[in-house]
Specification:
Low-confidence stretches: none
Strand order of the largest sheet: 4-3-2-1-5-6
Number of helices: 7
Shape: globular
Number of strands: 6
């Protein structure tokens, strides 16, 4: 079972065919120089998923996410907090995730925010737009576990912050059967 407050990372072994069927995964992996293309925050049997679809952010049961997203080419990894969340933190995390439902997310805007770290002026609207990893990070900010940042994060950078903080266990591979 997954502990409340965990981050789930997904990666996909991409092949030539998936270049045409899953082009966004290729773009994310290209820009982030990593096979990790998606992160989710896990709490109370559900995950906060931020992606570029028209519905915006969703807070859904983990099994529903697995059924919709995971394929035979998907690998799942996890980082867990070293200390369990207390009841107050769990309730706060659920409220935070619920407050994000429907929030729109743009991969293009997030990429501009991230690239603005290197090429100032690229993000003309000056609004910080996050990848799914930045929103996952913000869950930990809301809980007071990690400090607020003023720039966009990639999945690899999220993992680095988690490990460097000393508050998370090393990431590990999990089987789909461990998710519910």
């Amino acid at each position: 079972m997954i502990k409340d407050g965990s981050t789930i990372y997904s990666s996909t072994s991409l092949n030539f065919k998936s270049l045409f069927t899953k082009p966004l995964k290729f773009v994310i992996q290209l820009f982030t120089s990593s096979s990790m293309e998606h992160t989710l925050f896990y709490i109370d049997g559900r995950v906060l998923e931020i992606n570029g679809n028209k519905k915006g952010a969703q807070f859904k049961p983990i099994k529903q996410w697995v059924d919709e997203y995971v394929t035979k080419h998907t690998k799942l990894h996890i980082t867990e907090l070293k200390e369990d969340l207390n009841l107050e933190q769990t309730e706060l995390a659920i409220r935070y995730c619920e407050s994000q439902i429907g929030v729109k997310y743009s991969t293009v805007q997030a990429s501009r925010s991230w690239l603005d770290n290197f090429f100032k002026g690229l993000n003309k609207d000056k609004q910080l737009n996050q990848y799914c990893s930045g929103q996952t990070y913000n869950c930990y900010v809301a809980l007071g576990i990690l400090p607020k940042l003023d720039y966009a994060l990639t999945p690899v950078e999220l993992l680095d912050y988690q490990i460097i903080s000393g508050k998370f266990n090393q990431w590990r591979r999990i089987n789909v059967s461990e998710t519910y």
